[in-house]
């Protein structure tokens, strides 16, 4: 007995003894009367492999549920490029040729193909992102060039300007008569937009703004469409107003201005504008990135995008928002669509890679039992562990980003402040998490396809190089995850100050109470398959981890801030904060996946999605099993059961892998990899023909 052991160590005071007795009684009570959401289940061994019912998946039915209402517009994009082989990007192409081809692809799609993405940027964002996914799968450079033209350049005019700007520029942007740039990043400032140094000084005598680059560090850098094709740029600069005091000017903060950079007829660079080419890049060489310097470039006062702040003829500044910080936040908030699009497009890239690698792994045969035929490499457990959790993650990310797009579309219509905050947090977290995962997965897929994966024709190299920058632009991933962590901590503080929680963080309402209580010693030992595949257990486990991380980092920050200050404490806890943000995003992704499974109307498709969802959840839990073991959230035998079941689910997902990748409904033209075609018998024929045999 515990009390006997303690008494043998020496006398204790009555308070210590009473506390020990109460703790022991509470533990015994939990053993006898466990607190649970589900009916009591008998402990049982995992069912053997033969007892799980086979799933008959209809690829067409599952695909219909996956791709939804914008499937037709994507098919139009694929059909256009399939009918125009001269617009298909060859494997070997120079930088300059790729840039010109990219422009021809965009102009052809819009003017000949009749696809007008700009019309959906505001009115139907979900349709715009569906087009962007399809276009990006044709050529990622084309997808980015389209995004620069419509989401960044066009989006800044529509979202930051007013009716006069829409009336003047909409048609020209829509039909690509006005190709433009988004000039925010500077040589010395990328993520820190508030630190931009380019200035726009108002001249009341001429009713103009004077755009200046004060030093080399303020040169606009990495500006898409600038090096070759752009005629306009949305330039972000500090608005300086003249005053009659000793300072001479007042800094009103960062604003956006429309600045013509090339002549509309001759295409020559305009006076005062210097344009330089950023040159050959690791990837995306179809996009003409350039650098812009401005030397006293004058633009009309009307070229200020004045939705959140305006300057009158006599130089007076007016705004509906009272402070520079609020105007800055509102400006950046309207540009969040870029992050939404990158998260969505990154899932599209992951789909292509997973399709190619899975089809190849089903086709490729190596080794086998003595004197028997060779077996598919996907029959090897190691290959299953490389690809099947990745396939599950692809499905999970698909549903999470669909939800994000829906929320973004709702936000654009309602302008609800609470929803704006939710979309900001979700877009930052999902963009960072998904693009980082995809970047790692592209290398894994290449490796999983062996030497053939190294052939340029099989796309992994170009996909990897083109996608790599997704982790940096529209917000560096490490910076974005810190924003998510900061918002979590804000919600945590509000929870304990009696505030209300917004929708995205709703689960924290319970988590700070139930999830942070001592783990139940009975449920910690449940190891039946039904329990482990229960979505309540899975989601609770994810949320428990997030809640523990949130509470512990809040305590650490408070402790270190006393000696290091706020900035020093944040830096000391930075890796902890990044892990917290990733954990929160994983919880959100699982929640949306579980909802998608429940909402699937077809029984067989629902069963397939449930299998994939369970693999996603249990694989994630197993990968962080140390966290759960450290706090006794799962007992040793339960940890083993999770590992064993995750292995088995990998095997089961492998059995329907072809149907699952075919449900993405990517035509052979899109995958364009001989080792990734739908019909295995054609794969090697295409591959050898490509080599000239």
From TrEMBL:
Q: Where is the Acyl-CoA oxidase C-alpha1 domain?
A: 333-489
Locate the active site.
474
Write down a Pfam family by its short name: ACOX
Any one GO CC term of this protein is: peroxisome
Q: Which InterPro entries match?
A: ACO (IPR034171), ACOX_C_alpha1 (IPR055060), Acyl-CoA_Oxase/DH_mid-dom (IPR006091), Acyl-CoA_Oxase/DH_mid-dom_sf (IPR046373), Acyl-CoA_oxidase (IPR012258), Acyl-CoA_oxidase_C (IPR002655), AcylCo_DH-like_C (IPR036250), AcylCoA_DH/oxidase_NM_dom_sf (IPR009100)
* Protein's UniProt keywords contain Nucleotide-binding: no
A molecular function annotated in GO for this UniProt entry is: acyl-CoA oxidase activity
**Identification of the protein by name:** Acyl-coenzyme A oxidase
Listed binding positions for FAD are 185, 224
What region holds the Acyl-CoA oxidase/dehydrogenase middle domain? 181-297
Instruction: Tell me where the signal peptide lies.
Output: none
Q: Where is the Acyl-CoA oxidase C-terminal domain?
A: 534-677
Q: Which protein family is named in the record?
A: Belongs to the acyl-CoA oxidase family.
Q: Keywords in UniProt for this one?
A: FAD, Fatty acid metabolism, Flavoprotein, Lipid metabolism, Oxidoreductase, Peroxisome, Transit peptide
Q: Which cofactor does it need?
A: FAD
Protein's UniProt keywords contain Iron-sulfur: no
Protein location: Peroxisome
- Source organism of this protein record: Solanum pinnatisectum
Q: Which GO terms describe its biological process?
A: fatty acid beta-oxidation using acyl-CoA oxidase; lipid homeostasis
């Amino acid at each position: 007995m515990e009390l006997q052991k303690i008494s043998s160590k020496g006398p204790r005071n009555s308070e210590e003894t009473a506390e020990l007795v109460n703790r022991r009684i509470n533990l015994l009570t939990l053993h006898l009367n466990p607190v649970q959401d589900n009916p009591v289940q008998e402990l049982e061994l995992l069912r053997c492999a033969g007892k799980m019912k086979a799933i008959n998946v209809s690829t067409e039915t599952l695909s219909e549920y996956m791709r939804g209402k914008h499937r037709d517009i994507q098919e139009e994009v694929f059909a256009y490029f399939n009918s125009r082989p001269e617009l298909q990007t060859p494997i070997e192409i120079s930088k300059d040729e790729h840039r010109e081809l990219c422009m021809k692809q965009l102009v052809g799609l819009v003017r000949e193909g009749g696809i007008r993405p700009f019309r959906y940027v505001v009115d139907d964002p979900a349709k715009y992102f569906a087009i962007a996914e399809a276009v990006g799968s044709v050529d990622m450079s084309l997808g980015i060039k389209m995004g620069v033209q419509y989401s960044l350049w066009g989006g800044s005019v529509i979202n930051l300007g007013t009716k006069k700007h829409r009336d003047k520029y909409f048609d020209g942007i829509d039909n690509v008569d006005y190709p433009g740039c988004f000039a925010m990043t500077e040589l010395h400032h990328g993520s820190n937009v508030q630190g931009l140094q380019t200035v726009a000084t108002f001249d009341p005598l001429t009713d103009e703004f004077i755009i200046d680059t004060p030093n080399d560090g303020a040169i606009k850098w990495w500006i898409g469409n600038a090096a070759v094709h752009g005629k306009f740029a949305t330039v972000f600069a500090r608005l300086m107003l003249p005053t009659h005091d000793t300072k001479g000017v007042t800094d009103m903060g960062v604003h956006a201005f429309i600045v013509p950079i090339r002549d509309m007829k001759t295409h020559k660079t305009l006076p005062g504008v210097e344009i330089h080419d950023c040159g050959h890049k690791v990837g995306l060489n179809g996009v003409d990135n350039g650098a812009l310097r401005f030397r006293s470039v004058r633009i009309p006062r009307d070229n200020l995008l004045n939705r959140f702040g305006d300057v009158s003829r006599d130089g007076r500044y007016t705004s509906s928002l009272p402070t520079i910080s609020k105007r800055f936040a509102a400006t950046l908030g309207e540009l969040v669509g870029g992050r939404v699009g990158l998260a969505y497009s990154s899932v599209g890239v992951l789909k292509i890679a997973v399709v190619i690698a899975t089809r190849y792994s089903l086709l490729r045969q190596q080794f086998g039992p003595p004197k028997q035929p060779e077996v598919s490499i996907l029959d090897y457990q190691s290959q299953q562990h490389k690809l099947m959790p990745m396939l599950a993650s692809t499905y999970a990310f698909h549903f999470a980003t669909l939800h994000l797009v829906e929320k973004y579309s709702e936000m654009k219509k309602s302008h609800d402040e609470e929803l704006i905050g939710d979309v900001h947090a979700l877009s930052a977290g999902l963009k960072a998490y998904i693009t980082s995962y995809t970047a790692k997965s592209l290398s894994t897929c290449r490796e999983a396809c062996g030497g053939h994966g190294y052939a340029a024709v099989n796309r992994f190299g170009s996909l990897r190089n083109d996608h790599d920058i997704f982790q940096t632009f529209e917000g560096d991933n490490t910076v974005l995850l810190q924003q998510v962590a900061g918002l979590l901590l804000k919600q945590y503080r509000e929870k304990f100050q009696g505030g209300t929680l917004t929708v995205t963080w709703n689960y924290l309402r319970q988590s700070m109470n139930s999830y942070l209580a001592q783990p139940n010693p009975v449920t910690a030992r449940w190891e039946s398959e039904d329990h482990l595949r229960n979505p309540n257990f899975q989601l609770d486990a994810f949320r428990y981890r997030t809640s523990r991380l949130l509470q512990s980092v809040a305590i650490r920050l408070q402790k270190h801030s006393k000696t290091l200050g706020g900035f020093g404490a944040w830096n000391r806890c930075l890796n902890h904060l990044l892990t917290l943000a990733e954990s929160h995003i994983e919880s959100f992704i699982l929640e949306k996946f579980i909802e998608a499974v429940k909402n699937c109307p077809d029984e067989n498709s629902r069963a397939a999605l449930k299998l994939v969802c369970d693999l996603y959840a249990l694989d994630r839990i197993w990968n962080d099993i140390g966290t759960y073991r450290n706090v006794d959230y799962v007992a040793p035998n339960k940890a083993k059961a999770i590992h064993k079941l995750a292995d088995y689910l990998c095997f089961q997902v492998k059995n329907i892998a072809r149907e699952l990748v075919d449900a993405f409904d990517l035509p052979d033209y899109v995958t364009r990899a001989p080792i990734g075609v739908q019909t295995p018998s054609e794969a090697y024929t295409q591959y050898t023909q490509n080599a000239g045999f």
